[in-house]
Design a protein that fits this description.
Blueprint (H helix, E strand, L loop, with lengths): L8 H13 L2 E2 H12 L3 H13 L3 E3 L4 E4 L3 H16 L4 H11 L4 H14 L1
Antiparallel strand pairs: 1-3, 2-3
Length: 120
C-alpha cells in the first residue's frame, strides 16, 4: 500500500489552496499565501517543496505546481491507512468504534446505508 504522509495544520491549509487553484505558478502561490496565511515568500517555497516531497504535488522547471494526488485520493488513502493501523484493517471494527460514542442523525444513517447498498 502507498504511504500517505500526515500533514500538519498549516501544510493542510496550504494544500487546500493548491488543490483549489492548480495548476498554479509558484509566484501566484506566494501571493495567495501572503494574502491568506500571512506567509513570507521563503516559507511558501519551503512548504511547496515539502508537499512535493510528500508526493501530493509536483513543481516543474517553469515553477508551475501540479496535482499528483487529488484531495479525495489523499484523504481516502489516509483514511484507509488509519483503519489498517488502528483497527488491523477491519472496517466494521472502525465503524463500531466510531458510532459507539458518536450521535448519528437519521440522515447520516440513511446516507451510510445508501453508500453501502451501492457497493453491493
Amino acid at each position: 500500500m502507498r504511504d500517505y504522509p500526515s500533514l500538519g495544520e498549516m501544510e493542510a491549509r496550504f494544500a487546500e489552496i493548491i488543490w483549489n487553484t492548480a495548476p498554479v505558478s509558484s509566484s501566484e502561490l506566494v501571493r495567495r499565501a501572503k494574502e491568506e496565511l500571512n506567509w513570507a515568500r521563503t516559507t511558501t517555497h519551503t512548504v511547496i517543496r515539502k508537499l512535493c516531497e510528500k508526493g501530493l504535488f509536483v513543481r516543474d522547471a517553469e515553477g508551475i505546481v501540479r496535482i499528483v494526488l487529488s484531495r479525495e485520493e489523499y484523504y481516502s488513502g489516509r483514511g484507509r491507512q488509519f483503519v489498517n493501523i488502528a483497527y488491523d484493517g477491519s472496517l466494521p471494527m472502525f465503524i463500531a468504534g466510531f458510532v459507539k460514542k458518536q450521535k448519528l442523525s437519521e440522515k447520516d444513517i440513511d446516507e451510510i446505508i445508501e453508500l453501502l447498498n451501492k457497493k453491493r
